[in-house]
Design a protein that fits this description.
Layout (H helix, E strand, L loop, with lengths): L1 H4 L2 H19 L7 H10 L12 H13 L3 H4 L1 H20 L4 H12 L2 H6 L5 H22 L4 H13 L5 H13 L10 H23 L3 H16 L5 H9 L5 H12 L8 H16 L11 H18 L2 H26 L8 H9 L9 H13 L3 H4 L2 E5 L2 H10 L8 E3 L3 H4 L9 E5 L3 H7 E9 L9 H5 L2 E8 L3 H7 L5
Parallel strand pairs: 1-2, 1-3
Antiparallel strand pairs: 3-5, 4-5
Helix pairs in contact: 2-6, 2-7, 3-4, 3-22, 6-7, 6-9, 6-17, 7-17, 9-10, 10-12, 11-16, 15-17, 17-18, 20-22
């Protein structure tokens, strides 16, 4: 028992628990993010697929709803656990590569302070679990390379299958591993039954979603095409390389990434891990060539940071005591300070409305998209309750994006509101209000669109919040309309109302 308590794994688990505790303490600071509201609504309508993502993330969301209700901290709990587990995995990879406890702790800490990791533990999104599966698959690849035991392909196939059932871009990491196999001595495994068993496991796990896609006209491919075209048009893919340095890792840990790649591809101790190096390089190049967003590459970095930590440990052990002590102190100081600064910018730490809030909300919109959702429900409820009882019985709610739809379905029932319709993503499949309402409260649409579809519309309210925080909803389409008389039938209107976001 004492030996187990003193083991390296326990140290890594304690660090992960500390990470979970920090996220739990801060994750209730603001409110649900717009993306979380979509996932929360999808979690109430489980299926084998959704327009935006495969089924695992909504299924985890459903579990959280069952365990914690609609608690904000509870809904984000498993995301915090997922990114914290990646710290443990990074430490275990360092151990497999020959690192001692110091190298394992360094790998875990370097992984923890990556801004992408800090942010992914602060909001419930599929990226958190994609990050976990990618890191776990890499760990199994390292185990394969170290042991030469082909049975590890079954574990690799399992995690890749889970990754594909979590996020479609996990396919890039799968292709990266294929590239690593073809570009290294791992080609020998093409003759192993275990590689093909791993392939079969991965395919079987992904098969339910494939069937769902076929039954829904491959809707997610259309969605991803639309999303990518929008990202390129709006320049969201720009800064890909800079994002790797500043956000996927951390300025303080960039040298570890470089050392890790060198260790895996050139150092004598790391030559056996060429498959890992080539898989990381191939995945990175695939995302770069595809003009993807910078953070899509996040799962490749825990293994590079782990390898870099081992390389640094080897250098430190061989260097003069004074130089080693100086370099070690400098590295840890940089990691802690840079990590603290990045945490302030990407985690919900700053008190709402203070100077820190104003600084962070100007740099990105992640926090602004967590403000004002209950206020939106209040505005809609005021309009709804201003109608006569007879008219309320035939009044529906129509929203322009999934955040508005999700918010009104979360906060609306307690205010006596009917369910909110939306044509965005999987909301569209849930259909329109079967009462075929004659009066509709419309949120998030432009005047031209409501006038084109309804016989009469008036501005009945504004989507504002008492804090004066502007986000996409309150800034771009603040008017809330009260409309009457749909010009076409509801089935005809609904066919044209499908949209992506």
């Amino acid at each position: 028992m004492k030996k187990w308590i003193r083991s390296d794994v326990v140290v890594l688990v304690l660090l992960a628990l500390l990470s979970v505790a920090v996220h739990t303490a801060t994750n209730g600071q603001y409110g649900f993010h717009r993306d979380e509201l979509q996932t929360l609504d999808d979690a109430r309508h489980l299926d084998w697929g959704f327009v935006v993502y495969p089924p695992i993330t909504p299924a985890i969301g459903r579990l959280e709803l069952t365990l914690f209700g609609t608690s904000l901290v509870g809904f984000r709990f498993f995301a915090a656990v997922a990114v914290s587990l990646v710290m443990v995995i990074a430490g275990l990879i360092a151990k497999e590569l020959g690192g001692g406890r110091r190298e394992q702790v360094l790998a875990a800490a370097a992984t923890c302070v990556a801004p992408v990791a800090l942010a992914q533990g602060a909001v419930f999104q599929y990226v958190s679990f994609d990050y976990l599966w990618g890191a776990l698959a890499t760990y199994f690849v390292v185990k394969l390379c170290k042991s030469g035991d082909a049975r590890w392909w079954a574990a690799i196939g399992l995690t890749l299958g889970l990754g594909m059932e979590t996020r479609y871009t996990a396919g890039f990491w799968t292709l990266g591993i294929v590239g690593g196999v073809l570009l290294s001595d791992a080609r020998k495994y093409l003759r192993s039954k275990w590689l093909w068993i791993g392939v079969a496991i991965s395919v079987l796990l992904f098969l339910p979603n494939v069937i769902w896609q076929l039954r829904h006209d491959l809707i997610s491919l259309d969605f991803l095409k639309h999303l990518h075209e929008r990202d390129v048009r709006q320049g969201r893919n720009k800064g890909f390389l800079l994002g790797q340095i500043l956000l996927c890792v951390n300025l303080a840990t960039v040298p570890l990434v470089a050392a890790g790649l060198w260790f895996l591809s050139a150092k004598e101790q790391g030559k056996k891990y060429a498959l890992v190096a080539w898989a990381c390089i191939a995945t990175f190049l695939l995302f770069w060539a595809a003009k993807a967003r910078f953070y899509y590459t996040a799962p490749i970095y825990p293994v590079l940071l782990a390898a870099g930590s081992v390389a640094f440990g080897n250098w430190r052990n061989a260097a003069k005591a004074g130089a080693a002590k100086w370099a070690n102190g400098l590295l840890w100081t940089a990691i802690v300070l840079n990590g603290a600064v990045m945490a302030f910018f990407v985690m919900p730490i700053a008190p709402f409305g203070g100077a820190g809030w104003r600084i962070t909300s100007k740099l990105h919109d992640q926090f602004r998209e967590q403000i004002g959702w209950p206020d939106l429900a209040d505005h809609v409820a005021r309009i709804y309750n201003s109608l006569s009882e007879e008219e309320r019985a035939r009044t529906g709610i129509l929203t322009g994006n999934y955040g508005e739809g999700g918010a009104l379905n979360l906060y609306g029932p307690s205010r006596g509101l009917p369910f909110a319709m939306s044509g965005t993503n999987s909301f569209w499949y849930r259909g329109y209000d079967k009462r075929e309402p004659q009066t509709v409260i419309v949120v998030g649409l432009e005047k031209e669109e409501v006038d084109a579809n309804f016989k009469s519309c008036v501005v009945a309210g504004k989507n504002t919040n008492p804090y004066g925080v502007e986000n996409e909803e309150s800034r771009d389409h603040p008017d809330i309309y009260l409309c009457r008389g749909l010009k076409s039938s509801w089935p005809e209107f609904w066919k044209k109302f499908q949209r992506y976001g």
